[in-house]
Amino acid sequence: MLGTNARRNAAQIEAHIATYLTLFDVDGDGSTLAATDGLLVVRRLLGLSGPALTAGARAPSVRTDTDITNAIDRLKP
């Protein structure tokens, strides 16, 4: 259900999400997954970087720790 003052309808919301979904593939493995990309974003929001950010949460040798940090930081407004 949309709010009474919604700026987008359901189709526009779906299109908006589809447009930006690839930006959330922060580990660069071609998939946007909560267990990897989502975990990386949350860790970054908690201030982690380097190996503490990526340990056990990314596909090996897809992107470096710095590349992942930069991809997440580019999401910030």
Task: Explain this structure.
This protein is an all-alpha fold. The protein has a domain at about 25-75. It contains 4 helices and no strands. It has helices at about 10-20, 35-45, 50-55, 65-75. The model has no long low-confidence stretch (mean pLDDT about 90).
Short description:
By secondary structure, this protein is mostly helical. It is 47% helix and 0% strand. It has a domain of 50 residues.
* Helical stretch tally: 4
Helix content: 40-55%
Calculate the mean pLDDT score and round it: 90
Broad structural category: mainly alpha
- Detail the poorly predicted runs: none
Provide tags for this entry:
mainly alpha; 77 residues; 4 helices
Could you outline the blueprint of secondary structure elements for this entry?
Layout: H1 10-20, H2 34-45, H3 51-54, H4 65-73
